[in-house]
Design goal:
This protein has 327 residues and is an alpha/beta fold. The protein is globular. The mean pLDDT is 90. Helix content is 44%, strand content 16%. It folds into 2 domains: 5-211, Alpha-Beta Complex (Spore Coat Polysaccharide Biosynthesis Protein SpsA, Chain A); 221-325, no CATH class. α6 packs parallel to α8. The termini are far apart. The strands form 2 sheets. Strands 5, 6, 7, 8 and 9 form a 5-stranded mixed beta sheet that branches.
């Protein structure tokens, strides 16, 4: 059976953030091919959030509020529970979709009709909707392509949002990992690709907003130093899936670190706020990273000679300099 717009639900997930919510909902409602749109609130503290959404959008959307807080990825499971169509796309309240998102993925499904996950290119934007290059994936060289599990190991091709998947497939795989701190989407998309296959269009179908608010999950992970460890854990999960599928792929950690060396500037800026265990882990990545610059090499040499204490000292000096530079 071919995919059509009436088989699709877009679920906007929200906890306690109004700033971008109206744009997110509008982007789902204003598709060139209209679909069912729902809002799934994760039992947030703003009791006026639902009336705010109702006033803005009326009965154009359905609003669901979880009776208890479920957390980021378990709220995605809640979205699957509220979904009444065969296909679902999840959208965070601070991101938004291109008007042709649905149309592009329906067209993609005609080219690759037997897949369990469809997605497109995602443009990174700042808080003012201005395009930025941070986190951008390389453009496709063809109008569309099949995506394999091996494609998800290094630089993942599926920046959030802009995905379309079947909730029944996700439930068959156990649902989203409710305990995941960061890579719950990467984990699920990889499993869907492994079991059901995937295709990607070259069209930009969604916009991912980067901003510094502490309510943003990625900001929290950056601040507590868990980003690199969680990425590496997910890479190990993908390797396990590949081996289960009979693919003996060797993951070259040095190749990964050459592409994304552990940042000295990151450790100088955030090192004092990291737990001892996480700091040691990130310092270990620094020492194994090929240095992309003389500054990085000098910092790496000082760390190798004097250990974690050198990083803490550099972080204290960095904090002092930043405090003096503020107006």
């Amino acid at each position: 059976m071919s995919l059509s717009a009436d088989q699709i639900t877009i679920a906007i997930t929200v906890f306690n953030r109004r700033r971008y919510l109206k744009q997110a909902i509008s982007s789902a409602l204003n598709q060139t091919m209209p679909v069912r749109v729902i809002v799934v609130e994760d039992c947030g503290p703003d009791l006026e959030l639902q009336p705010f959404v109702r006033q803005e959008f009326g009965d154009r959307i359905e609003y669901f509020r979880n009776p208890r807080r479920r957390g980021l990825f378990d709220n995605w499971n809640a979205a699957m529970e509220y979904c009444r169509t065969p296909w679902l796309s999840i959208l965070h309240d601070d991101d938004f979709l291109a008007p042709g998102f649905v149309e592009a993925l329906v067209a993609l499904s005609r080219e690759a009709p037997d897949c369990g996950l469809y997605f497109g290119q995602t443009q990174m934007v700042n808080h003012d909707n201005e395009p930025i290059q941070e986190g951008m994936r390389p453009p496709l060289q063809t109008p569309w392509r099949r995506v394999t599990l091996a494609d998800t190991l290094d630089l993942t091709p599926f920046a959030f949002p802009g995905q379309l998947f079947r909730p029944d497939h996700a439930r068959a795989l156990g649902g989203f990992n409710a305990a995941s701190q960061f890579a719950g989407d990467w984990e699920m998309w990889s499993r869907l690709i492994s079991r059901y296959g995937s295709a990607q269009t070259s069209a930009i179908v969604a916009y991912n907003r980067t901003h510094g608010g502490l309510e943003r999950g990625t900001s929290k992970i950056m601040l507590n130093g868990r980003l690199r460890p969680l990425v590496i854990v997910q890479q190990k999960r993908v390797l396990h899936l590949l081996r289960q599928n009979g693919q003996a792929i060797h993951f070259d950690r040095q190749y990964f670190l050459r592409r994304m060396p552990m940042s000295a500037n990151y450790l100088i800026r955030y090192g004092l706020g990291l737990s001892p265990r996480i700091l040691r882990y990130n310092v270990g990545l620094l020492l194994r990273s090929p240095s992309p610059s003389l500054q990085h090499r000098l910092f790496q040499t000082g760390t190798r000679w004097f250990g974690v204490g050198f990083v803490k000292l550099a972080a204290r000096v960095g904090r002092l300099l930043r405090s003096h530079s503020r107006p």
